[in-house]
Design goal:
About 35% of the residues lie in helices and about 10% in strands. It is α+β, with helices and mostly antiparallel strands. It folds into two domains: about 10-55, no CATH class; about 60-90, no CATH class. It has a two-stranded antiparallel sheet. β1 and β2 form a beta hairpin. The longest helix is centred in the last third of the chain and has 16 residues, at about 70-85. The relative contact order is 0.08.
Length: about 90
């Protein structure tokens, strides 16, 4: 759940419209197109009317399989390998 503090008198529909999935769709469509082939290995952030490029992301940890991942096996491995790095303790 996301909680926002809005100034008194500001209509909620402004925030709802700004956070609409319709505002993310254009950058998603661009990144899925052939035209964006030059922008690989980067993190793009989109929220409301903002699109940002993050500077040179570097992996903290990697999981390398020997073939296609089974979804449950990958979930287990993600929790075991990445969990401690992020303070997650499986219950």
């Amino acid at each position: 759940m996301i909680a926002w503090k809005l100034p008194i008198g500001r209509p909620n529909w402004c925030l709802t419209f700004a956070l609409s999935p319709d505002n993310v769709a254009p950058i998603v469509a661009y990144l899925a197109s052939e035209r964006s082939g030059w922008i690989t290995g980067r993190i793009i952030h989109s929220s409301g009317y903002e699109v940002s490029l993050y500077n040179n992301p570097e992996p903290v940890s990697r999981l390398i399989g020997t073939g296609p991942w089974d979804a449950d096996a990958l979930a287990d491995q993600v929790e075991r390998s990445f969990g401690p790095l992020l303070g997650y303790r499986p219950g």
